[in-house]
Write a structure and sequence with these properties.
This protein is an alpha+beta fold. Among the domains are: about 40 residues, no CATH class; about 100 residues, Thrombin, subunit H, CATH 2.40.10.10; about 90 residues, PDZ domain (Pdz3 Domain, Roll); about 100 residues, PDZ domain (Pdz3 Domain), CATH 2.30.42. Strands 21, 22, 23, 24, 25, 26 and 27 form a 7-stranded antiparallel beta sheet that branches. Strands 1-2-3-6-5-4 form a 6-stranded antiparallel β-barrel. β10 and β11 form a beta hairpin. The longest helix is centred in the N-terminal third of the chain and has 17 residues. It is elongated and about 80 Å long. The relative contact order is 0.08. Its main location: periplasm. Belongs to the peptidase S1C family. InterPro entries: PDZ, PDZ_sf, Pept_S1C_Do, Peptidase_S1_PA, Peptidase_S1C. It is found in: Periplasm. It is an enzyme of class 3 (hydrolase).
């Protein structure tokens, strides 16, 4: 007992000090929003009936042994007469396996998630991963009533799904707010219905915006410390006006429970996806027909762009909308349809969100000057395409070097070198036959077999052309030089190499 007294005394000291300073000090010592703003309860009461539980079932094939997987690999091998042999034989028999293993009949698995009603006609939004592969989907209301739902459409790229059910009573629906207006530190409310026992409410703040995990081409998450736990996936994130400003999708946690790092797809993205799924049952994203890359400080300096910004066009699809509009490799897109492009991800998202067939103005910087191109967007083929594995470049038997510069051994594209490095006939330029490991070229991952197509946005046909351009840039006091490089298949990228 006595050992607790000093500790208690230490905890009471601040309170005693506050009391000694008078009533004014006591009031100032208590934070104004220690438990959050008063409006949270009003928001929860207003919208909670619109938040539903999503219950799914799926038929799966049994995989073999009693522990899952092949019976021979999951059951231990026991010598005849072992004291444990009788125990495991009994275990197999009780699970219907006998000597042939367990019953291989298919069985159902059940999963739970959350969703929310956006239309009193029975339209529900949730995550795709909540209903992915489901044979049956049910919507369970806050009062426990249950309805069978049909799938309207899904978008795997943003992990969103739209469901529809036939209500037998009036519904509460919620509206989307403008996630672009969210501010860091703003209070938000996460509501889920993970166990079909009624809604659960947690509150927190917006701790970050525009989070990108490279999990998809359109990542742009809202980060919040409002607790998002298992079963809350697909539930809404509200602002204090009761508007949906996000769909809770991801958490980062070593335990599976909330540690204050949760992520929601912003409502601006959700609203556009939902509209298309309701209208078409699928996503119809805009397509520009270009390959893009980051504008690094070195590339910006080489292209005379200050400050570094935009999306660098590394390649143009011959059959894409950008080609007839006059967009070329080396152009830097800084504005698309009136919206500023700060980095490549901005261009990807904005193009995808733009209507197919719309004519838009695209502002590019070419050789230091702004130009405006008019493009009529095509439709992106959003099917998942297999990733091509690059062939390993064979070691050359000899190095027919004609020039050496920037840590690169360069040669003309002879038939022998084309064959050795499997370079397509359509690729023109100067081939790299060796890269010095202790140079900027190696740091930028240039490798033998790649072809330099342009130097400082001028085509080169032999090694002497490359060295001449490099020497001139050094003489002019330039800090770096921009190369357009192709791989053996002709895919292009820009690389800025230091001249110092």
């Amino acid at each position: 007992m006595t050992s607790a007294i000093p500790a208690l005394s230490r905890r009471l000291r601040p309170l005693v000090a506050a009391i000694c300073l008078g009533a004014v000090s006591v009031v100032m010592a208590e934070p104004a929003f220690a438990r959050g703003p008063e409006g949270i309860a009003d928001v929860a009461e207003k919208v909670i009936d619109a938040v539903v539980n999503i219950s799914t079932s799926q038929t799966v094939e049994a995989k073999g042994g009693p522990l899952g997987g092949d019976n021979k690999s999951t059951m231990p091998k026991l010598p005849p007469g072992s004291p444990f042999e009788e125990f495991f034989d009994d275990f197999k028999n009780r699970h219907g396996g006998g000597d042939k293993g367990p019953d291989m009949a298919p069985h159902k698995t059940v999963s739970l998630g959350s969703g929310f009603i956006i239309d009193t006609a029975g339209i529900v939004v949730t995550n795709n991963h909540v209903i992915d592969g489901a044979d049956e989907i049910n919507v369970i209301m806050n009062d426990g009533s249950k309805f069978k739902a049909d799938l309207v459409g899904v978008d795997k790229k943003t992990d969103l799904a739209v469901l529809k059910f036939a209500p037998s009573k009036p519904l509460t629906a919620v509206k989307f707010g403008d996630s672009d207006k969210l501010r860091l530190g703003e209070w938000v409310v996460a509501i889920g219905n993970p166990f079909s026992l009624g809604g659960t409410v947690t509150a927190g703040i917006v701790s970050a915006k525009n989070r990108d995990f490279a999990s998809g081409p359109y990542d742009n998450y809202i980060q919040t410390d409002a607790a998002i736990n298992r079963g809350n996936s697909g539930g809404p994130l509200f602002n204090l006006d009761g508007e949906v400003i996000g769909v809770n999708t991801l958490i980062i946690s070593p335990t599976g429970g909330s540690i204050g790092i949760g992520f929601a797809v912003p409502s601006k993205t959700v609203a556009g996806v939902v509209d298309q799924l309701r209208q078409f049952g699928e996503l119809r994203r805009g397509w520009l027909g270009v390959r893009i890359q980051q504008v690094t400080d070195e590339i910006a300096e080489s292209l005379n762009i200050k400050p570094a910004r935009g999306a660098l066009i590394a390649g143009v699809d011959d059959k894409g909308p950008a080609k007839p509009a006059g967009i070329e490799p080396g152009d830097v897109v800084v504005k698309f349809d009136g919206k500023d492009i700060k980095e490549p991800k901005d261009l990807s998202r904005i193009v995808a969100d733009t209507a197919v067939g719309k004519q838009v103005d695209v502002v590019v910087i070419r050789k230091g000057e702004e130009q405006t191109k008019q493009v009529t967007l095509g439709r992106l083929d959003d099917g998942d395409k297999p990733v091509q594995v690059a062939n390993k470049t064979p070691e050359p038997a000899e190095k027919p070097v004609t020039q050496k510069t920037l840590g690169l051994d360069l040669a003309g594209l002879s038939k022998d070198l084309r064959s050795r490095y499997k370079v397509k006939d359509s690729v023109k330029g100067v081939i790299i036959t060796n890269v010095d490991e202790n140079t900027d070229a190696a740091d930028k991952r240039l490798s033998p077999g790649e072809v330099i197509v342009e130097v400082a946005q001028e085509a080169v046909s032999n090694a002497a052309d490359v060295k001449k351009r490099v020497d001139q840039f050094k003489k002019d006091g330039k800090k770096s030089i921009l190369l357009l490089v192709a791989n053996s298949d002709g895919e292009l990228r820009f690389v800025a190499l230091s001249l110092q």
